[in-house]
Amino acid sequence: MKFYHEKSKDIPIIAEVDILVAGAGPAGIGAAITAARTGAKVMLIEKGAYPGGIATMGMMSHWSGATQCPLMNEIAERTMKSAALPIETNTGLTPFDCFWGIPHECLKQTLFEMLKQSGVTLQLHTMAVGVISDNNKVKGVITESKSGREVIMAQAVIDSTGDGDIAAFAGVPYLLGREEDNACQPATLMFRIGGVDYSRAVFPPSFETLIDLPKGEIQALGRVHLPSPAGHVLLYKNYLPGEVTVNMTNVTGIDGTDVRDLTRAEMICREQMEKIVLFLREYVPGYEKCYLTASGDMVGIRETRHFKGLYTLTPEDIVEATVFDDWIATRNFFNFDIHNIKGAGLDSNGEQKHFKAKGEYTIPYRACVPEKIDGLLLSGRNISGTHKAHSNYRVMGICLNIGVGVGTAAAVAVKSKCELRNVDITKVQQILLKNGTEI
Q1: DSSP 124-188
Q2: Beta strands in 23-165 (DSSP E)
Q3: What Rg do the C-alpha atoms of the chain give, in angstroms?
Q4: Taking the CB of the first residue and of the last residue of the chain, which one, N or C, has fewer CB atoms within 10 A?
Q5: Beta strand ranges found along 3-125 (DSSP E)
């Protein structure tokens, strides 16, 4: 590989804050809003044009994983009260409705309003491209945008980028994907279709939902007639009349930290979309006249880096419903949602229909603290956990819940003038309980 030597130059410091959150997906939203409400001066940067991450830009169909989180309930309640929802559906809606059918445009506006009201300084169209560090302590982040190369200094940085870009820049050790071969879960581009007759339509929510149709069983039809590695049928109700959110594109062998792989994933998923629409018209009653209406702004990446923290979350912790002494996110529950590494459907190591756990589990603060790097916290799917454990906590509700805990801890640490790893976890938990967290 050839190299070009870039001349050194001074980079302007555009902000100095208590807490900088990188990434405005569910984990970043939870961290930024909570830290600001706890009294910290917070800045949130996001590479896209609006907050929400996979919930908005990724056009995800529904929330799952930690619906008892007070902030999650607040987001859902405010979203479902939006006056911009279709008039015919904007009556009698509850927060629960948002959990199973996200109105994406209304959610965008809700998140903008909540960030503003919480006092978070939001900067969009901004990518983190490096860190400022000293003696293994992160003190700031280097960004790139239309305004050029800039620096934001912070007493604490929260990495909510999903892939853990900040932690990688800082040198935190990580494992990519599955332990034995570094393979990652497939990527998916979500999209919506219109023209669906709800009176006859079916909505299979999982790989293991089997529905007999006039031309055959729905999942079997998908495996035969959809373009490989697509081949499963997942369809979700939406609040726009006649619209359905589709989770059926599929790309395997993707490294979500490689821009060339990301480009390939976007192209393959879009090639599959038209074929999926044609499949639905041909084989699924109620979808005979369906058509493409919208698609996500980015392909959804399920798995990339698992960073090394002070503790690594295991599948056993989840199944045993472990309540850690240093919990910062409670009432989490989901299955081992491992999409097939090599093709469509559920991976042989996944457990959905037959998943069994003793109850809800907690996320320990130690899993969010890098082993050797100070000034930095992990938030969301990039925390310290195994490939299988990650398939459970990677979903949006749990990521937002983690963000709430991490944001609270960062605010307490900054106020106490202590290292993030040394924060008084009891004080953090007291604030969370006061704000409605249940244990």
Answers
A1: -S-EEEEEEEETTEEEEEEEEETTEEEEEEEEEEEE-SSS-HHHHHHT--EEESSTTT---PPEE
A2: 42-45, 121-123, 127-134, 137-145, 148-159
A3: 21
A4: N
A5: 13-22, 42-45, 121-123
* pTM listed for this prediction: 0.96
Cis link prior to 241 (omega < 30° from 0)? no
Identify whether 420 is part of a domain: yes
Q: Do 45 and 194 belong to one domain?
A: no
Q: Counting runs of H as helices and runs of E as strands, what totals does the chain give?
A: 11, 19
Q: Which domain holds residue 207?
A: 187-298
In whole angstroms, what is the distance from residue 19 CA to residue 297 CA?
28
Confidence class for position 353, pLDDT limits 50, 70, 90: confident
Q: Which residues pair with 235 in a beta bridge?
A: 246
pLDDT of 87 over the 80 cut: no
Domain stops at, among 274, 298, 322: 298
Number of domains forming the structure of the chain? 2
First to last CA, the chain: 53
Residue 84 identity: A
The region, left, alpha or beta by phi > 0 then psi within -120 to 50, assigned to residue 331 is left
Please give the pLDDT value at position 335.
96
Contact criterion met (CB below 8 Å) for 296 and 408: no
CA-to-CA distance for 302 and 22, rounded, in angstroms?
Answer: 18
Mean pLDDT for the stretch of residues 149-154: 98
Rounded Cα gap, residues 130 and 115, in angstroms = 25
Contact 310, 422 (CB under 8 A): no
